[in-house]
Amino acid sequence: MTRDGQYIFVTGAYKPRVRCYDVNELSLKFERCFDNECIQMKILSEDYSKVVFMHSNRYIEFHSQVGNYYTIRTPKQGRACDYRYSSCDLYCVGATNEIYRFNLEQGQYLEPLSSKSTGFNACEFNPEHELFACGSVEGHLECYDPRVRSLVGNIDCAVYANSNSGNSLPAVSCIKFKDALNIAVGTSTGQILMFDIRSNKPYFIKDHNYNLPIKRIDFHTLNDDYVLSIDKKICKIWNRHTGKNLTSIEPATPLNDMLNIPGSGLICLTNDSPKIFVYYIPTLGNAPKWCTFLDNITEELEEKPADT
Q: Residues in domain Nucleolar protein 10-like N-terminal (predicted)?
């Protein structure tokens, strides 16, 4: 979702494409097709006008309102990217020990950051102090300070993850900052580790118990204590201090990604089917202002007593 809350982007496969929806009109704004599947996208502007797409063939496409504006290629396959707004740098990680930096103001690559890890699966900038965190395939959380362009912290997350997969080490599959100090790390064996970045030990470990990689973690904006996490099979909403489940959503088709609409109780789950699953949980918050009719439906349901 764009930062102004007006548009929702969805990427899909067969045929690879992106769709942009206008929430105020509750309709499709535009659709564009790609040559290859999109791995990750990042919205650079407040609205829909500037977007970057990372593709499965090592290409990165920059789009403006009119369509594809510019395309670059990375030396190795990328798996995740994030944007540093203060310096206009796009950081890309993937199947290499180097973290590529592309400056959008100069339109050129900068010298990459080098790591001892063989590859990375996830990366994110902290929006408050711009610490760059990335998760390696060896199960390490590495933190870089972009001002000095060097490693400032390294946590071995594989030690705390229960590996049931034999000899292979649990890799870091996703990362999410909550605020300046709290970070959640998802592993390929289905654990979520909650860290305070001042400590190298997690203050809470949540296990999905499916031994599947965690695909996305998000923190609820209204109910500060609730964490939303998904793997291929299930979406769980739970308390980050106690681990107590508020609820779980288990659809019949495999899940790929999640959007928690900011400031509301609406959750969208993308999956291996043509339709996006949309769930409304009134306990988490009200419906967004562009679909207030959901609140009316909820009130009607409360008036009619039901068995289930």
A: 2-305
Split into its structural domains, the chain has a count of 1
How far apart (Å, rounded) are the C-alpha atoms in residues 269 and 171? 24
Tokens of 222: 């209204």
Is 308 within a domain? Answer: no
pLDDT digits (tens, 9 = 90+) for 218-232: 999 888 889 999 999
Contact of 151 with 133, CB cutoff 8 Å: no
The alpha carbon torsion through 243, 157, 190, 136 (nearest 10 deg) reads: 140
Question: What gap in Å lies between CA 87 and CA 129, rounded to an integer?
Answer: 13
Burial bucket for residue 49 (CB in 10 Å: 0-12, 13-18, 19+) = middle
| Residue in 148, 104, 139 with CA at minimum distance from that of residue 120 | 139
- Predicted local distance difference test score (pLDDT) of residue 164: 61
| Residue 1 counted as domain residue | no
Q: Is residue 210 part of a domain?
A: yes
